[in-house]
Amino acid sequence: MTADDPVSRLDDDDYPAYTMGRAAEMLGTTQSFLRAIGEARLITPLRSPGGHRRYSRYQLRIAARARELVDQGTPIDAACRIVILEDQLQEAQRINAEHHRPTGPSGPPAV
């Protein structure tokens, strides 16, 4: 399989495989909700050659988290900001963990 093989795209979290209608159906929400979180700049769907919005699995996970918050009563703009901050925190924690990994043998250097 090559990178251009359609089958290899099935494993790609960032591949924009889902139409707006399918994404809304999968999330159990409306297309207007997806447009609203797009306007709030939580996610930016890619566009098909015909101009239709296309969503990746990663974007659907982000949208699902925003929907959870909205369902709990959080205003949509606040929900989007929370999800952005959670994503930034997770990335900072990942980077921090990388910097604190031991790189050599443990213990003090030999004298």
- Sheet with most strands: strand arrangement: 1-3-2
Nearest-integer average pLDDT: 88
Classify the oligomer. single chain
DSSP helix count? 5
Structural class label? mainly alpha
How much is the radius of gyration in Å? 19 Å
User: How would you describe the shape?
Assistant: flat
CATH class: Mainly Alpha
Cα(first) to Cα(last) distance is 53 Å
Helix content: 40-55%
CATH architecture type: Orthogonal Bundle
How much of the polypeptide forms β-strand, as a percent range? 5-15%
Structure summary, number of beta strands: 3
Q: If you had to describe this structure to a student in words, what would you say it looks like?
A:
GO terms for molecular function: DNA binding. Keywords: DNA-binding. This is DNA-binding transcriptional MerR regulator. By secondary structure, the protein is mainly α. The chain has one domain (11-100): Multidrug-efflux Transporter Regulator, Chain: A, Domain 2. The protein has helices at 6-9, 20-27, 31-39, 57-71, 76-99, and strands at residues 18-19, 46-47, 53-55. Strands 1-3-2 form a 3-stranded antiparallel sheet. Helix 4 (57-71) crosses helix 5. It is flat and about 55 Å long.
What can be said about this structure in brief?
The protein is mainly alpha-helical.
Break the fold down into its secondary structure elements and pairings.
Layout: H1 6-9, E1 18-19, H2 20-27, H3 31-39, E2 46-47, E3 53-55, H4 57-71, H5 76-99
Antiparallel strand pairs: 1-3, 2-3
Helix pairs in contact: 4-5
